[in-house]
C-alpha cells in the first residue's frame, strides 16, 4: 500500500524481442528504420516559425540555428549511450540521489 503523496511505480516494460544488427531491439518481423537524415537547422526554423507564430528578428536566426546544432549534438550523444533492458525510470525524482 502506498502512503499519502506517494507515486505508484510505472508499469513494467514489455519484454523486448530479438536484437537487430545495430545491437538494439526491434519487434520481430518489422524492418529496421531508415537512418535519420542530417537535420538542417535553417529548414527547421523555416518550418516551425510560421507554425508557432512567434516573431523572430532575422538577426537571431544564426543564433537559433547554432543552438539547434548544439541540441542535435547533445541528442546524438544521449541516443548513443547504451542502456541495458533492466534500467527503469525513477518513479519519483529525488535530487542528489
TrEMBL record:
InterPro entries: AtzG-like
UniProt region (Disordered), positions on chain: 1-39
Pfam families per record: AtzG-like
Domain of life: Bacteria
Pro residues: compositionally biased ranges: 1-13
Protein's name according to its UniProt entry: DUF4089 domain-containing protein
Organism expressing this protein natively: Roseomonas fluvialis
Amino acid at each position: 500500500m502506498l502512503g499519502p503523496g506517494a507515486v505508484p511505480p510505472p508499469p513494467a516494460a514489455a519484454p523486448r524481442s530479438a536484437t537487430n544488427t545495430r545491437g538494439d531491439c526491434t519487434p520481430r518481423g518489422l524492418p529496421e528504420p531508415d537512418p535519420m537524415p542530417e537535420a538542417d537547422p535553417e529548414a527547421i526554423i523555416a518550418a516551425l516559425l510560421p507554425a508557432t507564430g512567434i516573431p523572430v528578428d532575422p538577426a537571431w536566426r544564426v543564433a537559433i540555428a547554432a543552438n539547434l546544432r548544439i541540441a542535435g549534438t547533445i541528442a546524438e550523444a544521449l541516443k548513443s549511450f547504451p542502456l541495458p533492458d533492466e534500467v527503469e525510470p525513477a518513479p519519483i525524482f529525488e535530487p542528489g540521489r
